[in-house]
Write a structure and sequence with these properties.
The protein has about 280 residues and is α+β, with helices and mostly antiparallel strands. It has a single domain (about 30-280), classed as Sandwich (Jelly Rolls), CATH 2.60.120. Helices cover about 25% and strands about 20% of the residues. The strands form two sheets. An eight-stranded antiparallel β-sheet has the order 1-2-9-6-11-5-4-3. Strand 3 (about 80-85) and strand 4 (about 90-95) form a beta hairpin. The radius of gyration is 18 Å and the shape is globular. Residues about 5-25 have low confidence and may be disordered. The chain binds 2-oxoglutaric acid (AKG). The site of 2-oxoglutaric acid has 8 residues, from strand 10.
């Protein structure tokens, strides 16, 4: 396991816990004070080679299986998101949110002791799974505008963070996630009215953009206040990536079930109009 924040921070923060067998029996990864300070300063971190090729290959097989669950892939199913295409043709299915109840492999990754050890190191306490989604990002689909994930719903945990687990290599061409370090320290950058807001491009300095180009086995972690976005998938292949979000245990404890009740209410209210009654969760 190789802990880095791209070349800027490599000199201060490399640890190769996986290859040198530094993961201890409780699964805790020994992160140095300096590495944790870097995470706090930047609001993101990349850790290389956390998972083995065979572990990610198994996840990949299960993710392909999900693409054949045609009875679930439906515009009225609250579990699904569809995304516009950049050539203007019909939007394509993009996401299952949640996903761990559909996929034993995704569930296994969400509680993996190495991952939980890393998060314990970053939080200084145990992490609780809050949300889980698999973004399939088919070729031709658009990316996401600049935004922060934290939303001002009552009790929404300020310790929210997301772990990216690439199933396919994520590259600039297939629309990898891009983060803007440091801004998380400013907290929410949009009105706190309980609605999702895009950020204007002027909210960040373009030169600070870091593309999270990852190989299967690597992970990236970013804070709920870290501005991020992604481009269209202009490659010929899918960019499948598991997004696992957590909160610190002392910040509300286990609240995944409550979150999904609240999230579905939000989606149903947003889907105003005659079609709203057709929405369901399966
Ligand atoms: O697909 C991506 O790279 C970005 C996804 C994202 O920003 C989100 O789900 O909040």
């Amino acid at each position: 396991m190789n802990f880095s924040q791209h070349s800027v921070d490599d000199s201060q923060g490399n640890v190769d816990a996986g290859r040198k067998g530094m993961v201890n029996h409780s699964g805790t990864v020994p992160l140095s004070r300096g590495q944790i300070d870097l995470w706090k300063r930047s609001g993101y971190v990349v850790i290389r080679e956390v998972f083995t090729a065979s572990e990610v290959a198994a996840l990949s097989v299960d993710a392909w299986r999900l693409t054949r669950e045609q009875h679930l892939i439906d515009r009225n199913n609250l579990r699904c998101r569809f995304r516009e295409t950049f050539d203007g043709s019909e939007s394509l299915w993009e996401t299952f949110d949640p996903v761990i109840d559909l996929s034993p492999d995704c569930a296994r990754f969400s509680g993996d002791p190495r991952l939980m050890g890393i998060l314990h190191g970053l939080y200084g306490e145990p992490a609780c799974l809050f949300k889980d989604k698999l973004i399939f990002k088919q070729p031709g689909t658009k990316g996401y505008e600049l935004h922060q994930d934290w939303i001002s719903w009552p009790g929404f945990p300020r310790s929210f963070l997301t772990v990216l687990i690439p199933i396919d290599p994520s590259t600039a061409e297939n629309g990898c996630t891009e983060v803007f370090p440091g801004y998380h320290r400013q907290g929410p950058l949009t009105p706190q009215d309980g609605q999702y807001h895009q950020l204007p491009d002027t909210a960040v300095e373009e030169s600070r953009c870091v593309p999270l180009e990852l190989q299967p086995g690597d992970i990236a972690v970013f804070d709920g206040f870290t501005p991020h976005r992604s481009s269209s998938n202009r490659s010929q292949s899918w960019r499948r990536q598991l997004y696992l979000s957590y909160n610190a245990e002392s910040d509300g404890g286990h609240q995944r079930e409550t979150h999904y009740v609240e999230f579905h209410d939000y989606l149903q209210c947003r889907g105003a109009g005659p079609d709203r009654s057709a929405l369901y969760f399966r």
